[in-house]
TrEMBL record:
Domain AAA+ ATPase: 285-424
Pfam family, one: SRP54
Highest taxon listed in the record's lineage: Bacteria
Chief localisation class: membrane
Family per record: Belongs to the GTP-binding SRP family.
Domain SRP54-type proteins GTP-binding: 286-477
Protein name: Flagellar biosynthesis protein FlhF
Keywords recorded for this protein, A-Z: Bacterial flagellum biogenesis, Bacterial flagellum protein export, Cell membrane, Cell projection, Cilium, Flagellum, GTP-binding, Membrane, Nucleotide-binding, Protein transport, Transport
GO biological process, one term: SRP-dependent cotranslational protein targeting to membrane
Cross-referenced InterPro entries: AAA+_ATPase, FlhF, FlhF__GTPase_dom, P-loop_NTPase, SRP54_GTPase_dom
Upper lineage: Bacteria, Bacillati, Bacillota, Clostridia, Eubacteriales
């Protein structure tokens, strides 16, 4: 792991690529402040944490060596015409096996560099003591009687003495840790075993994580192309929490000049966010709308804003239903709003009670239903919510998402809530976050329209239909 620091992301990336090559992997990036006095007046820099590729290098082949002692060229042929046996790099030619007189010289077996060839190598899983040892003087007996007998070779070292050196010199195989079939260790990875199923889940999660990481990283060459206003847009979008790849795609379309670029940016953002989809309520036709979402996202306050808007500003007959009986203050809070607006409120204790509540609101133009906050990890509470929606059969289901939500939790939360019949998003607490780009990231991945955006606690003033939101000002901060 190495860290590189530069004024911009692109410059830091170039430093990393120049030293570690194109196979380097970016692990993390963050903004840090360097210099200054007591943390003030420092310069903001980009710090990249990069991992180098540590894959082993391939084994280099043997190089030619001199002819072993005792090997002669066949009669009638020049010595230069005979192919010399190859000896692995770093192995003395004297240690190579002798060649029978008059026959072709066999190719020497490849031996890892730095390992003596005097003794045979024991295969993996075979005892070194079981490997036959060469007999002293065998090379001499292979020579013809007419020729002078070569000096006897020294006795080979015991295989047991050579094996430790070999195990140290040769890198371990990547497959050496895999249990052999039939071994006790392989039984744990048998098909259908719990360990194998867990391993597969971990591999699938790792594959998805790597895929998301690779897809989110922008092309370094494209970053260098951003100039002028396009560069400013890219940096502002990153500060707003927009995903890097999405920020780059938007920035490349706005051009380098600010005057023309602002109009292009506004048009691009409006296209990505899509047309708004506010509640479609009208007099004489009852419409049931349910608000769902995790705890603490502002469902009850948003419901009160909607009730005030349609009752006071649109003049429609509104009824309220609450199933949020888990929080003591939730019913009291909503009842206070209902009393102020002079509209009825009905409480639902069980999912089956919703039919009676809807019957009491038979003549209402709009029925707004509040639900209790559920953690997407709580299977029992999520099942209750699903049963409630099945009984109520609402015309619209709005998923309320706080822009303060941790981006790491958003994907799992949406994957759990969206199958419940969600057909619109409501984004809340736009005034409390410095990263409203979460809204853009969600819209880029899930093609559901936005109905409203809230940016304060005032009822009903801090409720914005999606079509009236200036996304350029929201994401760019100006």
């Amino acid at each position: 792991m190495k860290k590189y620091m530069a004024p911009t992301y692109a410059e830091a990336l170039i430093l990393a690529k120049n030293e570690l090559g194109t196979d380097a992997v970016i692990v993390d990036s963050r903004k840090v402040r360097v210099g200054g006095i007591f943390g003030l007046f420092g310069r903001v820099m980009t710090e990249l944490t990069v991992a180098a590729d540590q894959r082993p290098q391939p084994y280099r082949g043997a190089r030619p060596a001199a002819r072993p002692r005792g090997a002669t060229a066949p009669s009638g042929a020049p010595a230069s015409a005979q192919p010399a046996p190859t000896v692995p790099q770093g192995i003395s030619a004297d240690a190579a096996p002798a060649v029978v007189h008059g026959g072709p010289a066999p190719a020497a077996a490849a031996v890892p560099q730095g390992v003596s060839a005097a003794a045979p190598v024991a295969p993996q899983g075979v005892s070194a003591a079981a490997v036959p040892q060469p007999v002293a003087g065998a090379a001499a007996s292979a020579s013809p009687a007419s020729g002078p007998a070569p000096a006897p070779e020294p006795a080979a070292a015991p295989a047991a003495a050579v094996w430790p050196a070999l195990s140290d010199a040769v890198p371990a195989s990547p497959l050496s840790g895999i249990p052999l079939p039939g071994s006790p260790a392989s039984a744990a990875l048998a098909p259908g075993s719990a360990d194998l199923a867990g391993l597969r889940r971990e591999m699938a999660d790792l594959r998805q994580a790597v895929t998301r990481l690779v897809e989110a990283r922008p092309d370094p060459a494209a970053l260098l192309e951003l100039k002028g206003y396009a560069r400013k847009v890219y940096e502002r979008l990153l500060d707003a929490g927009v995903a890097e790849g999405l920020a780059l795609a938007i920035s490349r379309k706005v051009g380098t000049h600010a005057t023309k670029g602002r109009a292009l940016l506004r048009a691009e953002l409006n296209q990505l966010m899509g047309p708004g989809a506010p509640i479609q309520a009208e007099a004489g036709r009852r419409r049931v709308v349910a608000l769902i979402g995790p705890t603490g996202v502002g469902k009850t306050t948003t419901l009160a804003k909607l009730a005030a808007h349609f009752a006071l500003e649109r003049g429609l007959k509104v009824g309220l239903i609450t199933a949020d009986t888990f929080r003591i203050a939730a019913v009291d809070q909503l009842r206070t709003y209902a009393d102020i607006l002079a509209i009825p409120l009905y409480t639902v204790e069980r999912p089956t009670d919703v039919h009676q509540a809807l019957a009491h609101n038979a003549d209402a133009d709009l029925v707004l239903m509040d639900t209790g906050g559920r953690s997407h990890k709580d299977e029992e509470r999520m099942a209750e919510l699903q049963e409630l929606l099945a009984e109520a059969q609402p015309d619209e289901v709005h998923l309320v998402v706080s822009l303060n939500t941790n981006p790491r939790d958003v994907r799992r939360m949406l994957e759990r809530y969206l199958p419940l019949g969600v057909n619109r998003f409501i984004f809340t607490k736009a005034d409390e976050t410095s990263a409203p780009g979460l809204m853009l990231n969600i819209r880029a991945q899930w093609d559901l329209p936005i109905s409203y955006v809230t940016d304060g606690q005032s009822v009903p003033d801090d409720l914005r239909p999606a079509d009236s939101v200036d996304y350029s000002k929201l994401f760019m901060g100006a």
